[in-house]
Structure formats: structure tokens, C-alpha cells
Specification:
22 strands; single chain; alpha/beta; globular
């Protein structure tokens, strides 16, 4: 389709200067993008996916990144061709946002936390669209002078009126105790105060009003609930899925020809992920945009892309039509990426990783072998008899944890005297049992109460009501001091490994610290030996003891957090979304590690996740949570094969399944 081409990348090489030496992040890659087409770029972290997209926009991070060769040809609407490699920073500003827009991976980081969501979208519209209104120079100048004077006078008028209504406030407080119709008085005073606040509000120019109108239209287009409320909300006040929709609205604000979506659904609930993908499809059809979709999840890309590029160490190792790459992958790296996603139709002993597609030759060197995905999965299957035998052994024991009618309510509304009158029921009358050596899966969308329930069991927060038994001890009313000896037996692995490690201390010291607190071993020499042993068990080199957290990848940091949790030799570990932000290949390695450690040390897990496929692989039993309640529970295979609740069916249908035969 020569007339439909939007972007052509030819022999692109991007290098970074690291410690005086040059490293190729993108190595001689070529691809093209047409109107209405989606090109998926897949690969692990560090494969060069994001650097490819940043190179296309000339947004390389730091001063060390440089495009050393190749061309990035953009085909403009008038038929002319522009090579972005030859354009300087000022010239590129014409194309960024207007012609090529980008949705970044982490919405909270990509948005300004001190600006309201609506302001951030209108700012992009005002910056890039100069022809919002047909005003001449004199009209614009007159309007600006008038608004300058008006916005200077309005705050003065606001404070004068505020002083004038202060006596009414005192009268209102007095009368509220005497007169029965307090609500009417309150509403009258509140209405008066709101009118005064409107006076203080900044007046907008004609361009600003038009930009706001367009921003609200975009909010409706991306299906944000309550567009007016969200327009005036800060990023931290809305959910992850809503933040991602705001970023999509911002990217669409200038009607770009090309949209680059860099991991736009990573760490989002599978249901939210599905709605974001469907939204992007709708928008693409409406505007005939070309989309470059970057992800580490091949199953997700299969449901969205037309063409696929598989990247490994900066190179494209495989490319082609979606069906061809998925059904007949040629490169072992592609097979590894396809296989490491937890399958839903079978139970595996361990998840396939790239090592399952490698074999040692007679000299001891690893080399690629031509195993198919099906061959590897068949070797790793667990039989129904093995599952039944394990369950029979597990559930003959007495439970390690028993929770009865547990509730946790958070106050959201108080009366005039500060007494709570309304609550959010984060956990609502939940009962469960966890048996020694078992992995109990807890699945549900964000906000369903999973994490609150887990933290209440660990006594990190106090429950509103109910009973918690741990190892035959009723710990419901234990104080922090009384809980301290038990902390050794109850550990947690958090979702964000970087946030849960102190960036200022060596990782070896971070693992030793809880051992000192709880008096594990007699001296630091013994503790260090144990730390080195734990690092080896979780797949981290022993010479990493004196390295800082930022020197490791996300998967390595999560392994370090697992080692720290194991340092106290606990009986129970709560895994709270511990793999949700990791690449699927790294995720598979971490999940396999957790299972092998469970078997080696006799650990008991509660595994919290929003992804039912991950929970099914890890768990012996599954609990499905919604609105603070357990709505379904049972053996993982049974829940997947015969879900009874509509919500469970929705979670299953939202899991990316790809098109692998």
C-alpha cells in the first residue's frame, strides 16, 4: 500500500555511551507502518522496544543516546517525505503531538501530579492547535488585557464577599443546634458560599473555552465516567484505568496520524486492559490511524496487531503476520515468549521459559533447539491424579490460618461533630482457611478488597470486626508489641520491588536487617553466609551483596525481595501482586521460583493478583473477591472449567488468549 504509508524506518541504529564505551540499544532495524494498521513490537525489558519508539520521536533519554545511522521517514498528508533524523529539536516540536502522539507506560509518572487532569489535556490542545478560534491580532490583544484586569479584580471581590458572609457562618452553627430544619439552613449557606467561590474562579479566554470543550469531548470519546468531575480531578484521585484513558485523550487531542502505545496496559486489571484495547481499536477505525503497539505480552498483542516484530538485544529476530508468527514461530526466543504465559486449559508443574528451548551440546555449550510450544507444554503437564493426591494431603491437616467473619470498614463521611456516618466496606464479612503448604489464590479487580484483606490478616491494619487465628493463636486483638515475635513467621512480598527496598543501603544489608531485628543466628558473619546462600537460591550472584537496588532489573529486585522474606524462615508469606508489573518471561521465572521455594521450605502462600491465569497456575484453591466479599471459591481447575458467578466469567473472558492453535 504505497499511498497509505505513514512511517518507514530503515536500518536504524541507536547507541548509548556507557562508561566510555558504546552500546547498541537498537541495532540496524527496519519496518514500516500504514494507515489503519497496527504494528506490534514485542520483547523483554531491555530488548530495545521503547528505545525504538523514542528514537522515532527523537526523544532519547539523557545526553548519551544518539542515532548513529539509518533514516526515519514520515509521509506527510501533502505527499512530502520528512526524515526525522535530519530534524533538530525545534523542528521536531511541529510533529510531536500533532502528527505522532505517544501513550506512555506508567500513567502516574507521565502525568503532572499538581495539575488537574483537564488542565493537562487543554494545555496540549492550546500548545499544538493555533487555529482553535478565528480571532485576529487586535481581538486577541484586547481579550488578554480585559482578562488580565478581570482576573486581578475577582480575587479582591471574593475576599470582600467572604468577609461579608462570615457572620452568617456563626449564625448557621448556632441555629443548627436549635432549629430542626438544619439541612435547609446548611444548604442555603453552602449555596451562598459556592456562589462566592464562582466569583473567585479564573475567567477563560475564547481559545481556552474552546480547548476545554474539546477536552471534555475527548473525555466522552474515551468513555470516562463523569467527564466534568474528572476534568477537575487530580491524577491521584482517579484509578489506573482512568488515568490511562486521560493519557489516551491527551494523545488524541491533536488528531495525530500515528499513535505509539508503549506498554499502555501493564499492571492494569485484565478487565481494564480489555476495555483499553477495545477503545484503541474503536479510535483507530474512526480516525484511520497507524498504531505502534509495544508490549512484552504476546497474547495481548495477538488480539490487536496486524504485523508483529519480535525484538531481542536490539535486533528484530522475527517478523510477520500475526497468525503466521503465533502459529508457526521460527525463532526459539519467540517460542519462549509464547510459552511462558500461564495456560488456562492445563495445569503445569512449572511454566516454560527460554531455557526449555535450549539444549547443551557435547561440549557443554547451550544452543537453540527446534522444540515446539506444544512439545514443551506436554512435558510439563500435571496429571489430574497428581493434583488430587496433593489436595488430599493438604486438606487433611489443621489450618494454619483461619479467618472468621472478618470486616474492615473505612469512614468516608462525618457529621458536624466528627463522628463517622458513612463507610466503605473494603472487606465485608469474609471467612477463609489456609492450610500448611497450600497456595491460596485471591483474585479480583483493583478496589475489591484483596490487599486490605491480606494486610488485615497480617495485622498491618486493624480489622473492624471478626476473628483471625494463626497457628492456633487468636491474634485479632494483638497489639503491635505482642505481634512483633510473630512477624518472623508472617512475611509479605510487595508489588513494587523498587519501592519496598531502601535505595540507600546494599541489598545484602537489606536482607540481613530483619535477621538482626529478630535475632536470627548469633552474629553477622553467620547471617552473611545465610544471605549469600539465599541469594544463590533465588538466582542472584553472590558478588551482588554490595550492590544497590537501582543496579538490578525489575525481576532481579523481586528475587531480592523474595530472599528477604525467606531470611526469617517464615511459615506464611503474603504475595501481594508480586509479579503484575514484570515481563511475562521474567514473571514465569519468578512464579517458578516461588513454587520451588514453597516445596523446599514448606511455605504457605496467599497469592493476590488481578490475573486469573497467574492465580490458576500458582494456586491450589482460588477465592474470587468483589466489593469486599468472597463471591466464589474452589479448586482452580474447577473454577476455570465451570465458573458459577457472572463476575468470574467476566474475569476469565478478559484474559488475553492470543490466536495460538
Amino acid at each position: 500500500m504505497p499511498n497509505d504509508i505513514l512511517l518507514s524506518v530503515n536500518n536504524l541504529t541507536t547507541e548509548f555511551n556507557v562508561a566510555g564505551s558504546s552500546k547498541k540499544a537498537v541495532d540496524n532495524i527496519s519496518f514500516s507502518l500504514n494507515k489503519g494498521e497496527t504494528v506490534g513490537i514485542v520483547g523483554e525489558s531491555g530488548s530495545g522496544k521503547s528505545i525504538t519508539s523514542l528514537s522515532a520521536l527523537k526523544l532519547l533519554p539523557g545526553a548519551n543516546g544518539i542515532i548513529t545511522s539509518g533514516e526515519i521517514l514520515y509521509y506527510e498528508k501533502d505527499g512530502s517525505i520528512v526524515d526525522f533524523v535530519d530534524r533538530n529539536e525545534k523542528e521536531m516540536q511541529k510533529y510531536r503531538g500533532n502528527e505522532i502522539a505517544m501513550i506512555f507506560q506508567e500513567p502516574m509518572t507521565a502525568m503532572n501530579p499538581v495539575m488537574k487532569c483537564g488542565e493537562q489535556v487543554t494545555e496540549a490542545i492550546l500548545l499544538h492547535q493555533k487555529d482553535l478560534t478565528q480571532q485576529n491580532v487586535i481581538s486577541l490583544f484586547t481579550e488578554r488585557v480585559f482578562l488580565l484586569l478581570l482576573n486581578f479584580v475577582k480575587p479582591i471581590l471574593y475576599y470582600l464577599l467572604l468577609i461579608a458572609i462570615l457572620p452568617f457562618k456563626g449564625l448557621f452553627l448556632l441555629s443548627s443546634k436549635i432549629i430542626l430544619k438544619t439541612r435547609k439552613i446548611f444548604l442555603a449557606f453552602h449555596s451562598l458560599h459556592i456562589k462566592v467561590l464562582i466569583i473567585k474562579k479564573k475567567s477563560l479566554s475564547k481559545r481556552e473555552r474552546e480547548a476545554k470543550m474539546r477536552a471534555l469531548q475527548l473525555f466522552k470519546k474515551v468513555k470516562l465516567p463523569r467527564p466534568l468531575d474528572l476534568f477537575d480531578s487530580y491524577p491521584h484521585e482517579i484509578s489506573g484505568g482512568q488515568k490511562q484513558r486521560v493519557l489516551i485523550a491527551m494523545a488524541l487531542s491533536c488528531n495525530p496520524s500515528i499513535l505509539i502505545a508503549d506498554e499502555p496496559t501493564t499492571a492494569l486489571d485484565v478487565t481494564v486492559q480489555k476495555t483499553i484495547i477495545e477503545l484503541l481499536k474503536e479510535i483507530q477505525q474512526e480516525f484511520n490511524m497507524g498504531i505502534i503497539f509495544i508490549s512484552h505480552d504476546l497474547g495481548l498483542v495477538a488480539e490487536f496487531a496486524d504485523q508483529i516484530l519480535v525484538m531481542y538485544k536490539g535486533k528484530i529476530v522475527e517478523r510477520g503476520e500475526v497468525a503466521e508468527v503465533y502459529n508457526h514461530p521460527k525463532h526459539p526466543y519467540t517460542r519462549g515468549l509464547l510459552a511462558c504465559r500461564p495456560p488456562l486449559n492445563v495445569k503445569l508443574r512449572e511454566l516454560p521459559t527460554r531455557k526449555h528451548f535450549l539444549e547443551r551440546d557435547e561440549d557443554g555449550f547451550l544452543g537453540d533447539v527446534n522444540f515446539s510450544v506444544k512439545d514443551v507444554i506436554n512435558k510439563l503437564k500435571t496429571s489430574p491424579e497428581e493434583i488430587a493426591l496433593r489436595n488430599n494431603i493438604l486438606y487433611k491437616q489443621d489450618p494454619l490460618i483461619q479467618v472468621t467473619n472478618l470486616s474492615k470498614h473505612f469512614p468516608i463521611k462525618k457529621n458536624l461533630f466528627g463522628k463517622p456516618v458513612d463507610y466503605v466496606k473494603a472487606v465485608d464479612n469474609v471467612s477463609l482457611k489456609v492450610y500448611p503448604g497450600e497456595t491460596l489464590g485471591l483474585v479480583g479487580e483493583s478496589g475489591c478488597g484483596k490487599t486490605t484483606l491480606g494486610r488485615a490478616i497480617l495485622k498491618l491494619i486493624d480489622a473492624s470486626s471478626g476473628e483471625i487465628m494463626f497457628n492456633d493463636k487468636n491474634i485479632t486483638n494483638y497489639t503491635s508489641k505482642k505481634m512483633r515475635p510473630l512477624r518472623k513467621d508472617m512475611q509479605i512480598i510487595f508489588q513494587d520491588p523498587y519501592g519496598s527496598l531502601n535505595p540507600k543501603i546494599f541489598i545484602g544489608e537489606a536482607i540481613m536487617e530483619p535477621m538482626r531485628v529478630h535475632g536470627v543466628y548469633d552474629n553477622d558473619l553467620q547471617r552473611k553466609q545465610e544471605v549469600l546462600s539465599l541469594l544463590y537460591k533465588v538466582g542472584i550472584q553472590e558478588d551482588s551483596f554490595y550492590r544497590y537496588p537501582h543496579e538490578f532489573s525489575g525481576g532481579q529486585r523481586q528475587r531480592i525481595c523474595i530472599a528477604r522474606a525467606l531470611a526469617l524462615q517464615p511459615k506464611f508469606i503474603l504475595c501481594d501482586e508480586s509479579v503484575s508489573a514484570l515481563d511475562v518471561s521474567v514473571q514465569a521465572e519468578v512464579l517458578n521460583l516461588l513454587n520451588s521455594l514453597r516445596d523446599e521450605f514448606g511455605l504457605t502462600y496467599i497469592f493476590i493478583s488481578h490475573d486469573l491465569s497467574v492465580v490458576k497456575f500458582m494456586s491450589d484453591r482460588i477465592l474470587v473477591m468483589k466489593d469486599g466479599k468472597i463471591i466464589e471459591e474452589g479448586i482452580g481447575e474447577e473454577i476455570y472449567a465451570n465458573p458459577k458467578n457472572k463476575y468470574t466469567k467476566k474475569l476469565i473472558s478478559s484474559i488475553p488468549k492470543g490466536i495460538v492453535a
